[in-house]
Amino acid sequence: MKPFRCDSVPAAMPSRTHHGVFSRLAELCHLRLILLLLFATTPVARAELNAVAVSPDGKIVVAGGDAKTIYLWPLAEDGLIRALPAGETVFSLSWAPDRRTIAAGTRHGCQIWRRAEADYQREAILQPERTVLATAIAPDNTALAFGVEGSGTFYFYDLASKEQVGELFERSNLTSGMAYSPSGLELASAGNSFSEWNVRAGSLPKAPPVRPSVEDAVAKSGPNRLWTAGVPGFVEYAAAVAYDADGKLLAGVNGTGGHGPRSGGKTLRVWEPKTGRTLRTGFATGMGCVVFLASGDLVTGSDDGKLRVWSVGNGRVTREWVGHKGEVRGLAAIPNSPNFVSAGQDDHICVWNPENGTRVRSIACGPK
């Protein structure tokens, strides 16, 4: 006897009993077809990564993104040691010098995670009504700074007490990148412009009890502004900033953000932080993140998946390769190593040798 097929149901049924059986089989085949179509058209969830950071001892990589999870990966291991439930999309990550504390900028606030023995616990969520796109922790482990979307305000908190200790205001509708200088006395920011600020202890304006007007906020923050480098009017915004190891150079890119494609310029700039004087300018496709290497060279990541190594001496690309499928959204140097780490839209964390562009190791985050 031939096997039953959905398309082999006869037009006429011999009896009511047979008619019921065949009708039921036809319904089951129809339901199976619907389920197959749904399965084929439903996208597989991926942990599109927006940020990456390396612990100060160079041993653990932390990454996060659209899967609302913070992933921790020990570089000496092949697997993830932990997936922390952030519960929110993660846009930025920073390690504290104590090697135990992580700041995560999320869709709703800045989360503070701290390791106690072998376990990580979330200790606080700061400014939960704000989307935090940029975070930075002071080198002396005392202060946390973060910038938000929809406001030009930078918030400063005492990392131990979780109390706000000050704020600064930039004429910007977002802050997409920030970094403390190695001395901890200055803070660089990227938004609708690149700026450097005096953030010495006791110099920060206190948070006002009532939200001031834009004019008052600018006037109050003005004395802390060291210099500003404007971004051309046709560029949407500046994306990221980074200091070199001794704080003598500051680099920034504009053109794309770390959490989605952006239009605008595709420019790498290198400044002398003390004066704000531009030393080098480079051009490439849609750069959204930047980091200094131990060698003194720069690496940028772009929305076309490319990684580029730049010579600071002449502002030229010395090596480039495709590192990710989709946008490169995060970069971090590995302390005490010539290598660096990248994180991308393709949910992968990768370790690279910048000398030859080879991938040392990689790991995929999210559902397997």
Mean pLDDT: 85
Q: How many distinct folded domains?
A: 2
- In CATH terms, what is the architecture of the largest domain? 7 Propeller
Give start-end ranges of low-pLDDT stretches: 1-19, 31-44, 257-264
**What is Rg?**
25 Å
Give the percentage of residues in beta strands: over 45%
How would you characterize the largest beta sheet? 4 strands, antiparallel
Total beta strands: 28
Put simply, the count of helices is 2
Please identify the oligomeric state: single chain
Q: Based on CA inertia axes, which overall geometry fits?
A: globular
Structure in a nutshell:
The protein is mostly beta strands and 368 residues long.
3D architecture notes:
The protein has 368 residues and is mostly beta strands. It folds into two domains: 15-44; 49-364, YVTN repeat-like/Quinoprotein amine dehydrogenase (Methylamine Dehydrogenase, Chain H). It has helices at 16-41, 214-221, and strands at 49-54, 60-65, 69-74, 82-85, 90-95, 101-106, 109-116, 119-126, 132-137, 143-148, 153-158, 164-169, 177-180, 186-190, 193-198, 225-230, 238-243, 250-254, 267-272, 277-283, 287-292, 298-302, 306-311, 316-322, 328-333, 340-344, 348-353, 358-364. Strands 1-2-3-4 form a four-stranded antiparallel β-sheet, with no helix packed on it. The longest helix is centred in the N-terminal third of the chain and has 26 residues, at 16-41. The two termini are 42 Å apart.
Distinctive features:
9% helix, 2 domains, Methylamine Dehydrogenase, Chain H, four-stranded antiparallel beta sheet, disordered N terminus, mainly beta, 45% strand, single chain, globular, 368 residues
